Amino acid sequence: MITEEKKEEKSLNFIEEIIESDLKAGKYTSIITRFPPEPNGYLHIGHASSICLNFGLTNKYPGYTNLRFDDTNPVTEDTEYVESIKNDIRWMGFEWKNELYASDYFDTLYGYAIKLIQSGLAYVDDSTSEEIAALKGTPTEPGKDSPYRSRSVEENLTLFERMKLGEFPDGSRTLRAKIDMAHQNMLMRDPILYRIKHAHHHRTGNKWCIYPMYDFAHGQSDAIETVTHSICTLEFVPHRELYDWLIAQLAIYPSHQYEFARRNLNYTVTSKRKLLQLVQEGHVSGWDDPRMPTISGLRRRGYTPESIRDFCERIGVARRENMIDVGLLEFCVREDLNKKALRRMVVLDPLKVVITNFPEGISEMCHSENNPEDIAAGNREIPFTREIYIEKEDFMETPSKKYFRLAPGKMVRLKGAYIIQCDDFVKDGNGEITEVRCSFIENSKSGQDTTGINVKGTLHWVSVNYSVPVEVRLYDRLFSVEDASNQEGDFKEYLNPDSLHVITGYAEPALTEAVEGESFQFLRKGYFAKDKDSIPEKLVFNRTVTLRDTWAKATEK
Ligand code: ATP
Ligand code: MG
Known about the structure:
557 residues; alpha/beta; Rossmann fold; Glutamyl-tRNA Synthetase, domain 2; CATH 2.40.240.10; 7-stranded mixed β-sheet; 24% strand; elongated; binds adenosine-5'-triphosphate; binds magnesium ion
């Protein structure tokens, strides 16, 4: 386990090493990072890792982090996504210095493009995308110059302006940098800087019909904001050369790009485009379906910001891609909820138990601690009555040797209440056990037990009369294979058909005080969070994660 203390001693990750040496060398006195989401979907657990890294660095070192929406593609973007992204970052516990939009730089970027044309470093190409691709060459063969490459500066300026004025249809022309069609880095072979797209943009409306490509927006936005350390994922390594080239040619602020490995989680997909398909095709109920690896899905599932930050800290910053086991994420949320979640008893698969020596029509209050890990959480009252429910699996007609739960002639403790002994049971016509008959042991009540009887099993239970039916949603992995994105055929063929089970559980009355989003440990059953679908007549709970069932293991075998 990594404790707070150990975290302090932890060695620096490679980006921290770079920053510390930059600060030491006096290259900077403070740093600026940015988190640059494209608002084309909800954030997922991979983004969480980038958020923790970027904001974490400026929490640790002097400086700040901007939130920049990388909104240069008008077709896929939406203000709904902008709002969800802001909400998710704040929920994670981070605050940005400036809220910025790449689209706010469209005028400046247009000016940069003119500057490149004037320097003879960009030209308008009338080739179709197929023609451009045909002349691109391969990693081992050089490309060929476009027939439009030698246009004069004046002609290029006029054509580029006419592109902006909307005189040409989509795809008919592009603006390309004039670098080297034989460059060993394919991305340096006259990359496209602008394309024509007659599309409405969520912020600039219909003002523009030419839009900058990623490579002509990202580094320039970094420079405009004087970002010192621009951190992205490994697939951008080959783009770094172009990033540096554009900054050098434009003589703008020299931001630097650093790359780290994309974080992938097993049994799910972390790509907004794929997650969008799941939403649009109805495989899940929405972006915040508790099975989704989105931050909003994890939140609804009952994950806490602390647990997600802890997860990101533990997986650290890597230079090489690898798959991370979702078990680690589950471990982190258990660790956190164990400290915080109030304990409640809920029977998920009820079997009626009649305590024959307990009077009918009365109830007796029992008490149990709300959280044994947190004395300040206090105690709660639980009504004990003649008829109770226990879990079906907690009774066995012919128990195995190490079964310490209820069985004929055997004793167990009811959590917070009495020791009971099983005297008899009732079966229906199909041989199903429908009722167990027990007697309680006088003077054995929890906290006041003077019997000296030592029982090995403790069961959770609820009163038949006072329990409240609640809807319980049990989740399993969304995909049945670890890496659905890298399988043959469509990734959706690997969806787990049994990822959701909805059952009715019977809860002790104290659970009705739950507020939306609140997390509980249902004793012996796991951690559960109250869902937003709850109405006063029907509370709904999502299982966040099961317990590492040490209790069951210790009593079973
Ligand atoms: P997606 O493929 O899901 O759309 P993306 O990289 O296109 O991901 P952006 O909105 O462009 O998503 O990403 C914003 C920031 O988050 C970028 O800096 C990106 O590198 C980072 N990021 C995205 N996915 C991951 C991931 N799986 N692991 C780490 N960082 C990520
Ligand atoms: Mg992207």
